[in-house]
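Ops channel
N.P.: pipeline sanity check, posting one input/output pair.
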């Protein structure tokens, strides 16, 4: 059944489609724009009532009928390409996770939560590629059916045909930035938690590195250190507390075999305390049990967010704070600049696809898909290459983040100027 189920599903789908072959289908139309019924002649228009030619090629008349026509075709193709990318990504990832799913039997809510957050990240990363391919296919179909020739004969330029898609790209760019600020940071963390559950690990496993989990600053001039213990246990193994002076000199160190939380404070068991002055030890005390005030256990398990999981303002403050301490921040500044440059790739992909679509449209949809994949590969290589150059400090962060946008904008402008319209 597993091997034959795809064949059966496609066979049933083919039979259903054959039933509707050759039938007339009603179109979704706006009542005000519905075509006149057959047999009714249009009323003759006087010379003064005839429409005047639109200035600026009709750019100021938006949305006109041509915009709704182009957008209708584009949005249909865009939805299909988006669904295809998400479906392929989900199938590939499920093939990688299926052994763990069969082994650990996670609930349906865990699987649904994992793939919901996983596909949000995939859709955000692939958005420029999806918009590029959808533009190539939608406008290419106009060229394939010679509709672009009809539009040009009616005085509508090819640039004007691409205007609604460009505006859609600008709206999608704003939406991508909004998603990066509100949804994606939390989605990335939730994806990691659900993946841990699918693999049979605690939900918080691996969300913080061992170095981050083992050290804790309580805000009162003390630094805590403890060994990694079993998850979910409110006890610290081999804890040490370092008390420091305002000028960062060691004043004392307290260590114990274990520390248990009693609801109000930590109980250090079988430990000792040493005090220091400059580089000399001035005192030593051993104890069996001692109550030590400190932060509750949940603060030791608090999650440290990575730059990719921070919002724009949060990452900006974090970068400035580290820069004041002298810490190298090239990678953080590059990631901060990419928060603005990455969404702007969406309208640039629409501009770049416009001349390619009308040049390759008559060659068929496969030519458009091939060009889209090629341009998508170039986009990925350039974004990763210049991002790495900015991270290691070989290029200024702003230049490294915006160079792919500048290159694609230059290429789009050159091709648009060379396009016959």
């Amino acid at each position: 059944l597993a091997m034959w189920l795809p064949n059966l599903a496609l066979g049933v789908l083919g039979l259903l489609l054959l039933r509707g072959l050759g039938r007339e289908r009603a179109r979704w139309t706006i009542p005000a724009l519905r075509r006149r019924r057959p047999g009714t002649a249009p009323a003759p228009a006087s010379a003064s009532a005839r429409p005047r030619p639109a200035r600026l090629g009709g750019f100021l008349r938006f949305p006109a009928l041509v915009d709704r026509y182009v957008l209708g075709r584009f949005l249909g193709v865009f939805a299909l390409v988006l669904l295809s990318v998400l479906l392929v990504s989900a199938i590939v990832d499920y093939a990688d996770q299926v052994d763990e799913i069969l082994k650990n039997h996670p609930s349906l809510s865990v699987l649904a939560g994992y793939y919901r957050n996983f596909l949000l990240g995939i859709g955000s990363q692939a958005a420029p590629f999806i918009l590029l391919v959808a533009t190539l296919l939608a406008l290419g179909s106009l060229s394939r059916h010679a509709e672009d020739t009809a539009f040009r004969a009616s005085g509508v330029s090819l640039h004007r045909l691409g205007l609604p898609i460009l505006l859609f790209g600008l709206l999608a760019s704003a939406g991508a930035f909004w998603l990066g600020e509100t949804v994606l940071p939390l989605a990335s963390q939730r994806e990691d938690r659900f993946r841990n559950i699918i693999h049979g690990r605690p939900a918080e496993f691996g969300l913080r590195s061992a170095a981050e989990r083992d050290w804790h600053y309580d805000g009162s001039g003390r630094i805590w250190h403890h060994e990694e213990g079993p998850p979910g246990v409110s006890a610290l193994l081999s804890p040490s507390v370092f008390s420091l002076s305002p000028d960062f000199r060691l004043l004392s160190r307290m260590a114990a075999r274990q520390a248990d939380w009693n609801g109000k404070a930590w109980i250090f068991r079988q430990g000792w305390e040493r005090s220091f002055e400059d580089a000399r030890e001035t005192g030593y005390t051993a104890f069996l049990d001692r109550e030590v005030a400190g932060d509750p256990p949940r603060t030791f398990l608090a999650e440290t967010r990575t730059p990719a999981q921070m919002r724009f303002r949060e990452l900006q403050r974090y970068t400035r704070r580290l820069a004041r301490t002298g810490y190298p921040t090239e990678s953080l500044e590059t990631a901060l600049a990419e928060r603005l440059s990455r969404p702007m790739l969406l309208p640039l992909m629409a501009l770049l696809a416009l001349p390619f679509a009308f040049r390759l449209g008559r060659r068929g949809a496969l030519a458009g898909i091939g060009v889209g994949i090629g341009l998508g590969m170039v986009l990925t290589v350039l974004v990763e290459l210049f991002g790495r150059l900015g991270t290691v400090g070989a290029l200024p962060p702003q230049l490294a983040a915006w160079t792919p946008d500048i290159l694609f904008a230059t290429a789009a402008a050159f091709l648009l100027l060379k396009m016959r319209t």
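N.P.: looks fine end to end. The two ends are 55 Å apart (CA to CA).
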